[in-house]
Amino acid sequence: MVAYAIETQGLTVYYGRHRGIIDVDLRVEKGEIFGFLGPNGAGKTTTERVLLDIIRPTAGSARMLGLDCQKEGVRARAKVGYLPGELSLYDNMKASQFFRMYHSLQGSGADDTYWQALAERLDLNTSRKIREYSRGNKQKVGVVIAFMNKPALLILDEPTSGLDPLVQQTVLDMIRAAREEGTTVFFSSHNLPEVQAVCDRVGIIREGRLVATERIEDLISRQFKRLRLAFVTPPPADAFNQAGVREIERDGQTVLLEIRENLNEVLATAVTYHVTDIETETVSLEEVFLAYYGKGNGGNHA
């Protein structure tokens, strides 16, 4: 029995002297939506390209659906739907011709009418030539191609890029529906709110190394809390000068704190200064993400 939809061990890629990814140990459970996060150059695309055998690793191994990505790549890719971050399409073909050609090349999967239903759901006019499409409509073509053969594994790189908000929601609904049918989704995105909305777990890659793999709710709860405290008389500026505690802002009688540790000590201190109200603010996945990286950090290669 296949334990994981995706499994890598010590996966390493160098481009000459330049780092791609280093010792990435990744396990994606069957039937989950896994968000793969990182800034440009962190190693997201490199990881995807190794999985699809577009590039070969310098060291380590990668498997999809129990199959070695390099030794059994053809069999593995037959079970995968892929949407790359940079689409390359046959601009002189009508979308309907392109879909029929792709379907015939696959030789298995859903019947020929399924792509039509997908295109209709995305409000895509398939009678037009691809070169006439806007960027958003070309992205819809890529989405249909990824989903049309009902793959066991979807690898999606920025799937909602260039789409208007309503279509973005449609794509997210398609991702959820695919998971409900047993498909595993490996989902790379810069749109952190949508990752938070659909993913079961996330992996954060930083400068080529996988720095965290967590359930989203666990990742958020473990990183930090934010408390807004109200007082009759505001406490002195150094009142919450404790390890793991940072004062973010002060407005009249209220103080906003970011707390990574010593929560009990903060509350005890607040009581001594006659706190009148305590409000917990929600921490977004984006804020957790920035806590790992700091603004402006990145890498060398995608």
Short summary:
This protein is of the alpha/beta class and 302 residues long. It has helices spanning 44-51, 73-77, 95-106, 114-121, 135-147, 165-180, 192-198, 216-223, 263-272, 285-293, and strands at residues 4-15, 18-29, 33-37, 59-64, 67-68, 80-83, 153-157, 184-188, 201-206, 209-215, 225-231, 245-251, 254-259, 275-281.
Please describe what this structure looks like.
With 302 residues, this protein is of the alpha/beta class. It has a domain at 225-282: Alpha-Beta Plaits (2-Layer Sandwich), CATH 3.30.70. It has ten helices and 14 strands. It has helices at 44-51, 73-77, 95-106, 114-121, 135-147, 165-180, 192-198, 216-223, 263-272, 285-293; strands at residues 4-15, 18-29, 33-37, 59-64, 67-68, 80-83, 153-157, 184-188, 201-206, 209-215, 225-231, 245-251, 254-259, 275-281. It has a six-stranded mixed β-sheet with strand order 6-7-8-3-9-10, sandwiched between helices. β9 (201-206) and β10 (209-215) form a beta hairpin. The radius of gyration is 23 Å and the shape is elongated. The two termini are 33 Å apart. 32% of the residues are buried. Mean pLDDT is 90; it is low at 296-302.
